Task: inverse folding
């Protein structure tokens, strides 16, 4: 069950090297209420696509539809550079938060073992998968947390653990639903640094929901503005200067200024961490 939460098998259609993902004419309705319709998205491996928009615009529902957790119209295609569909892609998913009993003795390695084996955790020796768990945690700079209680983790530490879990096995598409909501500035900067490393080292296609326009301006390759459909899409510069941005948010952000402020904040946090 836990494995199903963090990893989803995609449809039988795909591409030999998982070069891109195509969301074609997606739509979701609950009864007579239409959440969104006619959503077309196309994102490549090695790119980070950020989804922004007001609350209730359908951002999280879109991710759930891609995961197959809600019924939808349209199709999801994984294609190679020649537009050929083949293979069985894996989708990694990091939720906004994980509900857990903070007083429970469950540790980080217990969580991984619950996902990596069909047997009850108490019947499966931890040493058999410890090396695998450590390797996964090292990828997100969290190897030191392997024996930590989940309830003792900070918000940023827990999200990095969930990210490591979503990366085992390595997915072709990584979905992140506001993964740093409530995380402090240093934890947020580290999380985005890890995503940058993954894009380069693993050539991942990453789809991220975020309300932090500064981080989006600095790190995203593409931005999608949702408002019960696609209101605007393109580079951060294109979307942030689009009239639809002003209609939805009431402002037209200055991308250069947002990037500069984010960089200055990150530098300030780094300086404090050395003192």
Result:
């Amino acid at each position: 069950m836990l494995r199903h939460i963090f990893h989803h098998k995609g449809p039988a259609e795909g591409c030999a090297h998982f070069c891109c993902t195509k969301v074609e004419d997606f739509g979701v309705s609950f009864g007579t209420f239409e959440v969104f319709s006619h959503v077309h998205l196309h994102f490549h491996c090695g790119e980070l696509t950020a989804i922004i928009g007001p609350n209730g615009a359908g951002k999280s529902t879109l991710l759930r539809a891609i995961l197959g957790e809600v019924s939808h119209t349209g199709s999801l295609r994984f294609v190679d550079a020649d537009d050929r569909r083949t293979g069985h892609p894996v989708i990694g998913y990091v939720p906004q938060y994980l509900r857990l009993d903070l007083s429970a003795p469950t540790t980080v390695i217990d969580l991984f073992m619950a996902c990596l084996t069909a047997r009850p955790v108490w019947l499966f020796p931890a040493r058999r998968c410890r090396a695998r768990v450590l390797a996964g945690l090292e990828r997100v700079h969290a190897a030191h947390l392997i024996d930590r209680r989940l309830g003792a983790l900070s918000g940023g530490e827990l999200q990095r653990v969930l990210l490591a879990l979503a990366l085992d096995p390595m997915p072709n598409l990584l979905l992140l639903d506001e993964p740093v909501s409530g995380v402090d500035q240093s934890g947020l900067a580290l999380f985005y640094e890890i995503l940058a490393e993954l894009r380069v080292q693993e050539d991942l296609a990453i789809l991220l929901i975020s309300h932090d326009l500064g981080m989006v301006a600095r790190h995203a390759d593409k931005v999608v503005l949702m408002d019960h459909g696609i209101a605007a899409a393109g580079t951060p510069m294109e979307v942030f200067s689009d009239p639809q941005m002003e209609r939805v948010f009431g402002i037209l952000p200055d991308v250069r200024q947002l990037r500069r402020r984010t960089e200055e904040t990150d530098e300030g946090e780094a300086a404090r961490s050395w003192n």
Residues 255-274 form the longest helix (20 residues).
